[in-house]
Amino acid sequence: MKSVVVHGTGDLRVDERPDPVPGAGEVLLAMEWGGICGSDVGYWKHGGTGTAVLKDPLVLGHEVAGRIAALGKGVTGLTEGQPVTVHPATPVGDEPLPDRLAGRTNLHPCVRYFGSAALHPHTDGGFSEYRVVRAGQIRPLPENVTTEHGALAEPLAVAMHAVHRAGDVRGKTVLVNGAGPIGALVVAAAKHRGAATVLAADLSAASLSVARAMGADETVDLSSGAALPEDVELVFEASGAAAALGPVLHATARGGTVVQVGNLPGAAVPAALGDLVTREITWIGSYRFVEEIDDALLAMHQGLDVSPVISHRFGIDRAAEALAVAADRTSGSSKVMLRLAATPPGAV
User: Fold this and answer.
1) Angle at the Cα of 115 from the Cα atoms of 51 and 188, rounded to 5 degrees
2) Could you tell me the end-to-end alpha-carbon distance of the chain, in angstroms, rounded to an integer?
3) Beta bridge partners of residue 313, listed in sequence order
4) Which contiguous run of DSSP H or E holds residue 151?
5) How many CB atoms lie within 10 A of CB 23?
6) Measured between alpha carbons, how far is residue 47 from residues 6, 138, 140, 242, 326 in Å?
7) Which domains, from first to last, does the chain contain?
8) Which helix (H) or strand (E) holds 200?
9) The pLDDT of residue 342
10) Which whole number is the average pLDDT over 332-339?
11) What is the DSSP letter of 116?
12) What is residue 341's predicted lDDT score, i.e. its pLDDT?
């Protein structure tokens, strides 16, 4: 089977690997779509992302969907040909979480995640023609959700988790700083959860256009010299840029809340944080998600349209070109999708 494998910094290949066979309690998926994430780009461009450093070749991809090709022994409740997506996380070990983390499995001290070099040996992702998955990771797609949109359940779940971390957003004015794919999905998630007004800010006109299509009521083009609005009660920082922290904190109302969903650098960087103290701002981290992938699928079933966030589509043989487009802020890209296999006869 074909697999998209990063071998080192700047070294991406489409390799041939043996077709996998499902064991007991496992499911074989015929993969159809994958969405390229910033972490995929990081492994390719820098040989790592955050604190995870590439030591061996790694199959990329954690935003994926496909159809069940075969069931391993003992798997029930699923059928061959069924369209599904995947919860990419597998906690390692059975040590109970402390009470303060009850239910927050995303904060388990050791988690294997699709397409991640955080642990060694690494955990291969799903950018391949086939992938064996634990049955417990399978999430069937609602009948009106395609596998292309199903591949976006994972990043939408990240956005849903961030909004969940903020508490009740109904009737509130919300600012989303950074309108890349996650920021645009945060816009959609906030509107879906009842936010009254959502403002989106970014340096890219193309990204702001996507944010508007995803439900932003107003946008701020920071490239024009415009400043962030003032005294916003709830702010989602989705850019992950340390230089944005000062302006974001200054835009937050006294006693307001900032949810940090953009991944910040893992090394020391300068940042202006004074307003965090003088405004008594609550600064909340948001990491991946727990079971919000189910909320994401339900939201799509109920009509939340993720199609505006998709900007490009490439076949698996053009994976290197796809990552280059995703990494290039001047390309106008938002979510770049990989077609991982030919569409089966009769499939949507």
Assistant:
1) 90
2) 22
3) 337
4) none
5) 12
6) 8, 29, 33, 21, 16
7) 2-152+306-339 (3.90.180.10), 161-285 (3.40.50.720)
8) strand 197-202
9) 59
10) 97
11) B
12) 87
Cβ pair 127, 114 in contact under 8 A: no
Q: How far apart are the C-alpha atoms of 57 and 165, rounded to whole Å?
A: 35
pLDDT digits (tens, 9 = 90+) for 168-189: 999 999 999 999 999 999 999 9
Task: Round to whole Å and give the CA distance between 19 and 8.
Answer: 23
Strands 130-134 and 63-71: unpaired
Rounded CA separation 37/276 (Å): 30
Chain-centroid distance of CA 152 in Å reads: 8
pTM of the model: 0.96
Q: At 320, which helix (H) or strand (E)?
A: helix 319-327
pLDDT given at position 114: 98
Percent of the chain at pLDDT exceeding 70: 98
Reported as a single tens digit per residue, the pLDDT across 97-143 is: 999 999 999 999 999 999 999 999 999 999 999 999 999 999 999 99
Contact 152, 86 (CB under 8 A): no
Please check whether residue 314 is in contact with residue 339, taking contact to mean a CB–CB distance below 8 angstroms.
Answer: yes
Give the tens place of pLDDT for each residue, 10-56.
999 999 999 999 999 999 999 999 999 999 999 999 999 988 999 99
Burial class (CB in 10 A: 0-12, 13-18, 19+), 96: exposed
Q: What is the mean pLDDT of residues 265-284?
A: 94
One-letter amino acid at 2 equals K
Handedness of CA 269, 163, 46, 211 (dihedral sign): negative
By the 10 Å C-beta count (0-12 exposed, 13-18 middle, 19+ buried), 331 is classed as middle
Phi, psi of 196 (to 5 degrees): -75, -45
**Angle (CA) 211 214 217, round 5°:** 70
The per-residue b/e assignment along 129-140, b for 16 or more CB within 10 angstroms, e otherwise, is bbbbbbbebbbb
| pLDDT higher than 80, residue 345 | no
Measured at the CA of 194, the angle between CA 189 and CA 196, to 5 degrees, comes to 110
Q: What is the pLDDT of residue 50?
A: 84
d(CA 256, CA 171): 15
Which H or E run contains 49? strand 48-49
CA 284 to chain centre: 18
